[in-house]
Amino acid sequence: MNSDIIMECISTLTNELPLLRDKLKITQQELATSIGISRQSLIEIEHKNRKITKSILISLITYFSFREVTARILWDKEFYNNDFVKELGFNSGFLTNMYGIKDGSIK
């Protein structure tokens, strides 16, 4: 997998983390606990002082993709066009089946 593709995915998630948490009305502690890291690690990731490991990246993608409100935000950012995200199985077929999102529209 091309590292630029993964870095693009990391960049999008890092930039959107505060918004995604806000939309779900969850604290840093709640998200950190859900994905198996410390609150301090999440704070450092949000402030771009810590790199996201591949395992944390996959946990974040999974967490936000299985919540409709954040999946729709990421869809609007064209996050699911990323080949790394598609390789994980989070593609238009998944989003259509889960939430009725298809070709940029919402059923």
Essential attributes:
single chain; 107 residues; mainly alpha; 434 Repressor (Amino-terminal Domain); two-stranded antiparallel ribbon; 67% helix; globular
Would you write up a description of this structure?
The protein is mostly helical and 107 residues long. It has one domain (3-106): lambda repressor-like DNA-binding domains (434 Repressor (Amino-terminal Domain), Orthogonal Bundle), CATH 1.10.260. 67% of the residues lie in helices and 4% in strands. It has a two-stranded antiparallel sheet with strand order 1-2. Helix 2 (28-35) crosses helix 3. The longest helix is centred in the first third of the chain and has 22 residues, at 3-24. The mean pLDDT is 92.
Q: Which class best fits the helix and strand makeup?
A: mainly alpha
Main β sheet profile: 2 strands, antiparallel
Rg over C-alpha atoms, rounded to the nearest angstrom: 13 Å
Spatial order of the strands in the main sheet? Answer: 1-2
Give a brief outline of the structure.
This protein has helices at residues 3-24, 28-35, 39-46, 54-65, 68-76, 83-87, 92-99, and strands spanning 101-102, 105-106. It is mainly α. The relative contact order is 0.15.
Which helices and strands occur, and which strands form pairs?
Layout lengths: L2 H22 L3 H8 L3 H8 L7 H12 L2 H9 L6 H5 L4 H8 L1 E2 L2 E2 L1
Antiparallel strand pairs: 1-2
